[in-house]
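User: Teach me something about this protein's shape.
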Amino acid sequence: MMQEQDLADFQAYLLETLSTQDTSAEILTQLSSQPLDEGLVSYIHNLDPNMVEVAATLVKKWGQCRL
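Assistant: First, the predicted structure itself:
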């Protein structure tokens, strides 16, 4: 069962990936390469590539990275 911290870690990795990769293929490949809970694996495999590119564009334009 996925823990709250696992979800928080995935969300942080998702934001980092959306802000550093340019194409939906790169983003989905990078996300899929991570050891993830079955639910997150299913979620990633069902993401629409066009939606992923829009999300990346929005994160790059409006997102802020706190290090």
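Now, about its shape. The mean pLDDT is 92. The CA atoms of residues 7 and 40 lie 9 Å apart. If you'd like, I can walk through any region in more detail.
User: That's plenty for now, thanks!
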